[in-house]
Amino acid sequence: xxxxxxxxxxxxxxxxxxxxxxxxxxxxxxxxxxxxxxxxxxxxxxxxxxxxxxxxxxxxxxxxxxxxxxxxxxxxxxxxxxxxxxxxxxxxxxxxxxxxxxxxxxxxxxxxxxxxxxxxxxxxxxxxxxxxxxxxxxxxxxxxxxxxxxxxxxxxxxxxxxxxxxxxxxxxxxxxxxxxxxxxxxxxxxxxxxxxxxxxxxxxxxxxxxxxxxxxxxxxxxxxxxxxxxxxxxxxxxxxxxxxxxxxxxxxxxxxxxxxxxxxxxxxxxxxxxxxxxxxxxxxxxxxxxxxxxxxxxxxxxxxxxxxxxxxxxxxxxxxxxxxxxxxxxxxxxxxxxxxxxxxxxxxxxxxxxxxxxxxxxxxxxxxxxxxxxxxxxxxxxxxxxxxxxxxxxxxxxxxxxxxxxxxxxxxxxxxxxxxxxxxxxxxxxxxxxxxxxxxxxxxxxxxxxxxxxxxxxxx
Length: 460
Hints:
Blueprint: H1 2-10, H2 21-30, H3 48-56, H4 63-90, H5 92-104, H6 106-113, H7 118-137, H8 141-161, H9 173-180, H10 183-212, H11 221-232, H12 244-253, H13 259-269, H14 274-291, H15 293-312, H16 316-328, H17 336-355, H18 362-368, H19 371-394, H20 399-403, H21 406-424, H22 430-441
């Protein structure tokens, strides 16, 4: 189903707007094997997504069309992978319901259709979550360490796609502590993950430090923090710092222009290099943050909440973007197929919203679930919270950032919906009661860890 509704998007021509993020990525991808990462855009774009585009470009046709088709195919496969993985953990109802939402709802469909790194990053984050669950539920310490090594490599891949992936280093700590109940084992596991991730990402950070003077995965961290402080939180510019008064005048004269990009362009037009402009923005942002830390902290909490409500609530912005993508141009297959799929996805999202009580029924699931289920849920929360918080701190958030985490929100809410249905089963007649209890029973007690065989029941 996920593949069918994406077919019209696969058969059309894909274009990007000049001067945007997609154009930079496409330029880096098209010259990846020839000019390497010598393009100045590589200072702010790690090589993960450009490499993905370069590999897609090996297919016949234009790089834009090849990459879009590959993304759409992978996006469809993600829905199937979630069904396969979640079925063994939580049962048929949560697995199929989450898979349908990923296949048909707006957030994931939008990420699959645009040439930005968020879709690939979201898939890697889901893979990290799956492997972390497998590691936490593994009974054999040796097997757990092997899975943590795999998790580390996935985190490295995610970080090379988007630098915020570094935050996943923190995700295993609480689940490992809950699973092992041992400080030593928790530290060993967390150390394995942190050690491997840092070992494999520090070379790129050192490369940026050598060329651009910034020891980071992307030298635009000043611009993103600038956006957090002055766009999201609306703090006043510190006029006692260099360029502070100029920033105040810019904000007054250009109220409809994004300060993070507009003021950066103004600085470079005055002769500052990209790195120097980024350093000015970082200095202004940090100074303003030091003067109003509680305001920024409140803004971060609000942005984390928005990362959830973008998916759980009314995502009108995402639907408008997706509708425009569907109407943009026709391919060999009618776009009505995609539009119909989106309509079904919207109806499913409405049911999810209603039955799961905006996803908050997951709290009931935590109360009713067994220990292994809670451990799996703790992994979901840890992965989602690590990325959502890091994104909120460094960027302030956007719909596409929230959409990359949508599958975890869907699954968590569906587990809550399963609990609500089990409670409602107590008030219906026996035939329906039995069906509801059977449908939702496995959502409360995973039978096996991923990759482990289920023990035979007595008499089999």
